[in-house]
Design a protein that fits this description.
mainly alpha; about 0% strand; elongated
Length: about 70
């Protein structure tokens, strides 16, 4: 006996698949922008300095971020 042979579907008449449809299209750029805006808003609500975040990011990955401007 193969796996799943003992499964019995009793009523298939009532099954109606749901087709989801979105009214808004998101692009990769939209998702990235929304993520960072939410992130910055959350950090602002925790009273975290944006400059401090950038300095930490610079120290972690050595990004070429000019934080003096």
């Amino acid at each position: 006996m193969a796996m799943g042979d003992n499964l019995v579907v009793k009523d298939t008449k009532n099954f109606v698949p749901i087709q989801a449809k979105s009214t808004q299209t998101y692009t990769r750029d939209n998702l990235i922008k929304d993520f960072f805006l939410n992130f910055l808003e959350n950090e602002k609500s925790k009273e975290t300095s944006i400059i401090e975040l950038l300095e930490n990011l610079h120290n972690i990955d050595d990004f070429k971020i000019d934080i003096k401007t």
